[in-house]
Write a structure and sequence with these properties.
Blueprint (H helix, E strand, L loop, with lengths): L1 E3 L10 E2 L6 E6 L6 H15 L3 E3 L5 H13 L18 H9 L3 E15 L2 H6 L3 H8 L7 E13 L8 E12 L10 H9 L5 E2 L2 H11 L2 H11 L3 H19 L7 E2 L26 H14 L2 H6 L11 E2 L3 H12 L2 H12 L1 H13 L8
Parallel strand pairs: 3-4, 3-5
Antiparallel strand pairs: 1-7, 2-8, 5-6, 6-7, 9-10
Helix pairs in contact: 1-6, 2-3, 2-8, 7-8, 7-9, 7-12, 8-9, 9-12, 10-12, 10-13, 10-14, 13-14
């Protein structure tokens, strides 16, 4: 009945969804024109998964606005901030989750038709079911008629990590020769739930979702995700600090020129902003200085990040910190998510081999002269 559409995607390790957290169900298409079909689908999905299921019937803007307004009011100087963050309008799955505090969002688009037509010769030879043939024999059913039902569309499990949602295509056709009032038709709630059951609910890593939103330029939406879903205290503090810093940065007057990134890193505890100091003339740069250059290079040359934010990639001289908000967020996130500390600083300071490998990377990037 249902076949996978497209390739499998590499995702972060799955976590079981929280048992008592609601599931959001968004239903579209002619299959759900009847309220009884909609309610039947909700009730059977709830029974199948053993979790609360809520149907989202309309826009989620009002519910999300209520949450973000409350959070923004706690940040001084942000009265004129654009709560809608219109550049983030495509994050509808995140908005749906926030609207009802759900950690899973199912979207269903199914169309259903039922039409009668004359039976073909082959269909007449096969005949209908026993009841149909019997009623046709006494004139209570049309022996040469066919009732044809079609159900088509797709179901999907929303993804919050930036990758495409997981989808299943549905294409089902049933033909009933000599149909009667007793003919068993497609059970639309059962068909829908059977397809959704092939996409088991998986709770995302909400701290990672929030960091992605900050890097994309949606810090207020990230702040709402942190407030609603992030439970780990250290991660919650880091995401909250980064989101608030990004909001305040956007409220600041625009920068006229690119700011030069100097080579001294802040300590990890001061990760909310990047401190600067002049690069010393000594060729023996410290691991913190080398790692800062490397972190800036990672962001400046992440072409996928530029494309995701609708900006054409530009080559930037090594050590230059650009003024674009999504790059500023990227610089900051390397300290928040531990990339700077665990993936660069510790290997560099831990062994000569780690430092040499970092030097070679920076040399190939044109940041250092060979032999420096």
């Amino acid at each position: 009945m249902a076949l996978p559409n497209g390739c499998a995607f590499v995702r972060a390790p799955a976590r079981p969804a929280t048992h008592g957290t609601p599931i959001a169900l968004v239903l579209h298409g002619s299959a759900f024109e009847q309220d009884t079909t909609r309610e039947g689908t909700r009730a059977r999905l709830k029974a199948r998964l053993g979790r609360p299921v809520l149907i989202l019937d309309g826009p989620t803007d009002a519910a999300v606005d209520a949450k973000t307004s409350r959070l923004l009011s706690a940040i001084p100087g942000t009265k004129r901030y654009d709560r809608r963050e219109r550049r983030c309008a495509k994050e509808q799955d995140v908005a749906a989750a926030l609207a009802i505090s759900a950690d899973v969002v199912y979207r269903v688009q199914l169309d259903y038709t039922a039409a009668s037509r004359s039976a073909t010769k082959a269909e007449l030879e096969r005949g209908g079911d026993g009841t149909g043939r019997m009623l046709a024999a006494v004139g209570l059913a049309k022996a040469d008629a066919v009732l044809e039902e079609t159900l088509s569309g797709e179901v999907q499990l929303a993804s919050f990590d930036g990758t495409p949602s997981k989808r299943l295509r549905i294409a089902r056709t049933e033909r009933h020769v000599a149909p009667t009032a007793l003919t068993k038709r497609l059970d639309l709630p059962d068909e829908t739930v059977a397809a959704l059951a092939q996409l088991p609910p998986i709770a995302p890593r909400w701290d990672a979702v929030a960091r992605r939103l900050i890097a994309k330029g949606c810090p207020l939406l990230a702040l709402a995700v942190e407030d609603a879903f992030v439970r780990d205290d250290p991660a919650k503090r880091k995401v909250h600090a980064a989101a608030v810093a990004a909001i305040l940065e956007r409220m600041a007057p625009p920068k006229k020129k690119q700011a030069k990134v100097e080579a001294t890193l802040p300590t990890v505890e001061a990760a909310a902003d990047l401190a600067t100091e002049p690069i010393p003339k000594s060729p023996q740069l410290s691991c913190p200085k080398l790692c800062q250059l490397h972190m800036v290079e990672l962001c400046n040359n992440d072409r996928a990040l530029w494309t995701q934010n609708g900006t054409t990639w530009e080559s930037t001289r090594c050590g230059i910190r650009r003024a674009e908000s999504f790059l500023e967020s990227c610089y900051r996130m390397h300290w928040l998510d531990g990339t700077y500390e665990h993936a660069c600083l510790q290997p560099c300071e831990g062994s000569g081999e780690g430092r040499d490998r970092l030097l070679r990377l920076l040399q190939r990037a044109g940041c250092l002269r060979a032999g420096a």
